Structures are given as C-alpha cells and as structure tokens.
C-alpha cells in the first residue's frame, strides 16, 4: 500500500441482474502513480466493476469516489471521462470511418468547441486550437511508431495498432485515472511489449491505472497492488507474490 | 429554347434544388451521424404545410372550399423561415422520442410508425390540413407583383432555389469540417467509445436531428411555394426511402456524393422513365421506378457500400510537426532503458 491518498475509491459496490448477484460489496482503492491490477477467473465480475466505475452500468448500491471527494455515481459516462476518469474497452472501439489522426483529435478537442455555434460562427477559434492538438497527436503517434498511419482510416489498422490507438485516444484527454479492460488481448508480442513500456512510463509520470488482465505474469511485472475477485466478491488484496501464496486464491482460480 | 422546353428545364432545376437541400439534411442525420430517420419525409412535409398555411390566408378564402387551421398571410421569406423552424422542432421531438434505449433498429421502426401515423392523421382530420385532398392554390412569393411571364417567373424561382442551396451547402460543409462533424462521425462509428472519450452523444445526435429537420422543412416550403399544392399523397412513407437511396448511392457522409446520388435517384430515374413508351398494365412504369430504387439500394449496399463518391477523411501533413520528432527521440530512449 502506498501512503498517498487514493485517487479512486470503490466502496461496497453491488450489482444484481434480476436475482443474480454479479457484484457484491466490492471495495478497493487505486493509488496515483501506480498500476493496480484487477484479476479473477471469468465471471468474477471484473468487467462489471469497470462498467460501474466508468458509468455504462448503474450499480444497485455502493459508491465510487474520484479524486478524494467526488461521487461519480449518477454522472453519465461522458462527464466522468471529461473529469479525468477514462476507460478503454475489451473489444477494440476505434472510430473506423475516421483517420487514425482524427481519432486522436476528436478525443482531445475541448468539449466547448463541439457545438453548432462553434461550427458555424467561431471557426477561427477551433482552427487555432487545432494546431496544438495536432502537435500532441503527432507526438503520440510518433511514440507508437504509427506516424505513417496518421491519415489511414482506423478501420484498416491491425488489432494491436487499434489497441495502441485506443490507448492514445484515452491519453488525449489527459486522464487522472485510466481503466484498462484487457489491453493485451489479441495483441502481438511486439505491441504487447510496447504497451507494457508505455503503461510503466505513464504510472511513473503520476497516472493511476486500473488494469484488468488475466495474464498473471504481466500483472506481476506491472502491478504493485493486485485486487483478486471471484464470484462477484473481492477475495484478496496484496502484491502478486502474496496472492500466489494464498491457498484460497489458488483454489478460486483453479475452481473458477 | 422554346418556352415549353424552358419551363421543363426550370421545373427540373427547382425540383433538383429542393431535393439537394433535403438530401443534405438527411445526409447529416444518416450519413454523418448514423441516425436512421425513417420519418424524414414528415419533416419535409411539415415545412410544406407550414409555408402553405402562412401564405394561403384564412380558411374562408378562395370561396372556403378547403378547410385548415390557422391560415394567415405572411410576406416572403417568413413562411420559409417558419417552415425551417417547424421542421427543426418536430425533428427535435423525434430525437426525444427515440432518445433512451431506442437506438438503431428500434428507433428506425418507431420513426417509420410515426411516418405512417402522421399520414393517417392528416388524411382523416379533414379540418386540420384539408384531409386527403390536401392544400392547393398556395401562392408563390412575389408572383402577383412581379408581372413576369410564367417562364420568366420560373427562372426567378430557379435563382431563389439556387441561393437557398448555396446557404444549405455552406451550413452542411461548415458542420462536416468542424469538431462537431467529427464528433458526429465518432458517435456514428462507435457510440460507447464516443461517450468514453467524453463526447456527449445525445447532444451531437440532437444537433443532427435539428439541423437536418430545418433543412427538410425549408426544402418542403420551397417546393410547395413553387408547385402550389401539397397533399398526403406527396409524402407517403416510401418517399423517405427515395432520399435514403440518394444518400446510399451517392456516398454516405460525402456532401458532393449525395448531391450526385440525388441527381441520379431523384431526377434521372424519374425523368428518364417519363419518356419510356408506356407498356404493360396501367401504372406499370411508376411501379417499376420503386423496383429500380429498391434494386439500386441493394446493389450499392452489396457491391459499393460506401457509394459513388465515398466519404473522404481530411488529410493532414504531420511530418513537419515539432511533436513528431520529439516523441521519436523519447521512444528510442525508452528502448535503450529496456535493453539489458
């Protein structure tokens, strides 16, 4: 555990679908400048928790506190993203009809400039701001080694490149917390390595990352703190080493 | 050119202008934002009825042979502007109707039902908009004071139509190229991701509904003030699919493409078949028009789903951006740090 104040606190979150309890009384924290792992067998409720934190699912109870004091529940997903609580999806969610560059620009644009007024009357302002956005986007793409793809349609990227793009798109919002739902799924080893380096750097720069992942070796390399879920509950919390020694955890993984 | 030929040409030009404005409105909704608005023709019709009611004068006029509510006589261009507003407001109501948990296919079905209901209501409420007979003798702007020949006035109306087309073009182009247009396309391609990066999807869609509805309303007003009559037969639900065909054939999301699509589908198919010798049972050729439009939609969705002129993304030259070089050096530093 770090001494720092958590930037994201999930408290006693519950969710039931009909009579089925998908998530029961889940509580954990995510600290800034660290990667917190969220692991567990299929059906443990990891994605449900991510969906509740990001706002695409309403929980049956509990609370999600962001940045020390702000209650997130009740805010629509796009408002949470603008505050700096940004997620990516398990299935890649690129905007296929936009170019790679436009995917980044649309995420970085000041929401105030996305309006009819801005489109029809205040053209000079958004054109001016676009210069800075293009610089940031170019820097991002160069970092991914994708500068030559900038003007290609995002639909034509490889699976791994789509993952990178989605990460880059999330970063264009300069998030405080990043929720990553299996960012390594279906990614080539080269790009997986690239993503690992990127996540380490982002954490070192101060970002809080909540990482859902089932490859435990990756979790072990990246996460100081790991939350283990099974059957909708938090089973155990600690370092990956501690969890590996916990017979209950081993049992749940094998049984799950 | 004989005046008959001129009259024919001016008619086609005005109809094409009306269709262009409507198709650009639908393209903003369907092509750019991905809204399947199967009630689109109702919006055009609402504009037409609005302009008619605001130019016809009271229902007792013309010997009182037609019955409608709230007739009055406003000078041009007020009826046209009002038609745009009515189209926009009605369209906003459609947006609210389909806002929650009614997206995609379900929204399309609801909107289709709205279109059917609107026709039925107007046909059966005879005191509302004169029922199935519709409104006629709608005066054309300035015709009574301009003292032009029929053909001369038709050319004047072509000019008026052209001006409105240019305004519509300026609006749809400004939106397409702006951050708003980009947000609309993002919402179309992946709604969940759009919300995840902070885009207010509902608001982007509402804007597309409203602007598209305004354009539809204006197109209806422009048409009714030229042809002077409007009845439920002119806006049955299949008319919506003709506009959809124009957008799909021309190229969803491409302003030039849908204009070409409109020229092909709205003008060419109808005008060419007009000169085919009549054969088969009565009404055979009219029916074949629908078959051809249906086949066109299917053929394009199968073989060329992006249309004749596909949507073109804006290209940027990034090579000289300062950011590009900076990150490349940091990336190589990362690699070195990783090296054993």
How would you describe this structure to a colleague?
The complex is a heterodimer of chains A (256) and B (340). Chain A has 256 residues and is of the alpha/beta class. Chain A folds into 2 domains: 169 residues, 3-Layer(aba) Sandwich (Rossmann fold), CATH 3.40.50.300; 60 residues, no CATH class. Chain A is built from 10 helices and 10 strands. A 6-stranded mixed beta sheet of chain A has the order 6-7-8-3-9-10, with helices on both faces. A 4-stranded antiparallel beta sheet of chain A has the order 2-1-4-5, with helices on one face. In chain A, a hairpin with a 2-residue loop joins strand 9 and strand 10. Chain A is globular and about 60 Å long. With 340 residues, chain B is an all-alpha fold. Chain B has one domain: ABC transporter involved in vitamin B12 uptake, BtuC (Orthogonal Bundle). Chain B is 70% helix and 0% strand. Chain B contains 14 helices and no strands. Chain B is globular. Chain B starts with a helix and ends with a helix. The interface between A and B is large, with 58 and 47 residues.
Sheet with the most strands, sense and barrel status of chain A: 6 strands, mixed
Given the C-alpha coordinates, what overall shape of chain B results? globular
Q: Give the CATH class of chain B.
A: Mainly Alpha
Query: What is the typical, i.e. mean, pLDDT of chain A?
Result: 91
Beta-strand level of the residues of chain A, as a percent range? 15-25%
Runs of chain B in which pLDDT lies below 50 for 5 or more consecutive residues are none
Rg over alpha carbons of chain A: 19 Å
Structural class of chain A: alpha/beta
CATH topology (level 3) name of the largest domain in chain A? Rossmann fold
* SSE pattern of chain B: HHHHHHHHHHHHHH
The overall average pLDDT of chain B, rounded, is 90
How many domain units of chain B?
A: 1
User: How is the CATH topology of chain B named?
Assistant: ABC transporter involved in vitamin B12 uptake, BtuC
Q: Which architecture of the largest domain in chain A per CATH?
A: 3-Layer(aba) Sandwich
User: What would CATH call the class of the largest domain in chain A?
Assistant: Alpha Beta
What Rg of chain B, in angstroms, do the CA atoms define?
23 Å
Q: What's the overall geometry of chain A?
A: globular
Helical run tally of chain B = 14
How is the main sheet of chain B built? none
Distance between the termini of chain A: 27 Å
